[in-house]
Amino acid sequence: MSILQNQRSLFVKAIVASGIMLVMLACMMLLAERASAHGYVESPASRGYLCKLGTNTDCGAVVYEPQSLETSKGFPAAGLTDGKFGSANGIFPKLDEQSSTRWSKVNVTSGQMTFTWKFTANHATTDFRYFITKPTWNPNSPLTRDQFGLVPFCTHDMDGAQPPFTLSHTCDIPQRTGYHVILAVWDVDNTANAFYNTIDVQFGPSTGGDTIAPSAPSGVSASNIGTTSATVSWSASSDNVGVTGYRVYNGSTQIGSTTGALSLNLTGLTSNTTYNITVKAVDAAGNVSAASNTATFKTLTVTTPDTTAPTAPSGLHIMGTPTSSSMMLMWNASTDNVGVTGYRIYNGSALVATVSGTTTDYTVTGLSAGTTYSFSVRAIDAAGNQSAASTISGTTAPSDGGGTAPAWAPGVAYTVGILVTYNGATYECRQSHTSLTGWEPSNVPALWLLK
């Protein structure tokens, strides 16, 4: 009897250990899938970004990826669901908790204010729009359309252009007093998706509000100067609350930023060119310091043949849901010792198209419905050097008369947009993964969307 009990105990422990490993694997897969997506409001600091910095607490998984607050676009007519503005329709549900004291607030004043977006994948963009709660809103009620003015107080048009990895623009904030919420909307061009950030702001006097800017960084210097790169370093600033990051400028143009590191490797510079670098410190309330001293340097001249290939494009993924005849591919920019001049897109071994070095997306058309394809992207430079390939697989949607979706099964590699049936319901794959027993669509809403 004792031997039998020991065997049962060991069996139970093995099952528990296996379950823990599966959960850890799922989390790692989800974080890896999201690693390239996509952007957030850095200043004035958004609710999700303040969670990442630790200023907001009890936030859930958004601390790892404030750049992933993405759902369908079309706000205010469509897009967000009432009560789920903070979480972008429930991706990070903790962000939907709403009260007058739940979230840290950034001090602002009515009038001109600069909004800065930080991107991890700088997609072609239709526009940026900003909405604000009504003067009579209730801060202790969920965020809904009734709480907001539904005409944006500011729109920054992009007309399909691709922004840099850091983008700032100035808006006029309407007259308000006390605590309010700003909803920032980034409409991605030529896809069905947008990114939504809530920003908790305090107008006028506030209890314990931070209005003191950090001290200016000092000792800015440049080293490791190459033909298209250099390393910039500086000494730390001080602040009455705490410095959250640094912004690096060439003249008056911001060309980079850090979240606390005291150096930055500048890449993509132009050879034989003079740069005048300054650094400014910023805190969680959006207060920006005066500029540091200027570090002036000149990049080296290219004098030898270029035999170095660009790096492989990273973060290759399928943006949005594939149609029955097309998929939109997106990737992060490659780097090169001289400069990337283009990207080659392949379907299997067949070259589909070549796009410019500033383009990081391409829509492949003319595909067959309900078919799985393997795509790859390679970067090229002016000397004809070609990078290693980044690859991804995806399946087009069934045709309009495509019949019933296949039943879900374990051990199958599913990609974004694939439809399956389970227990009489139809689900759409939200994150590419290989299915396991226990990951049935009804059990893991992070992987499957009920249609």
Automatic annotation (TrEMBL):
Query: What is an example of a Pfam family matching this protein?
Result: CBM_5_12
Q: Where does the protein principally reside?
A: secreted
**Keywords from the UniProt entry:** Carbohydrate metabolism, Hydrolase, Membrane, Polysaccharide degradation, Secreted, Signal, Transmembrane, Transmembrane helix
A Gene Ontology biological process annotation? Answer: polysaccharide catabolic process
Q: Which residues cross the membrane?
A: 12-32
- UniProt GO molecular function: carbohydrate binding; hydrolase activity, hydrolyzing O-glycosyl compounds
A GO-annotated cellular component: extracellular region
Report domain Fibronectin type-III positions.
Answer: 216-302, 312-400
Tell me where in or outside the cell this protein is found.
Secreted
Q: What is this protein called?
A: Chitin-binding protein
Source organism = Paenibacillus nanensis
The lineage is: Bacteria, Bacillati, Bacillota, Bacilli, Bacillales
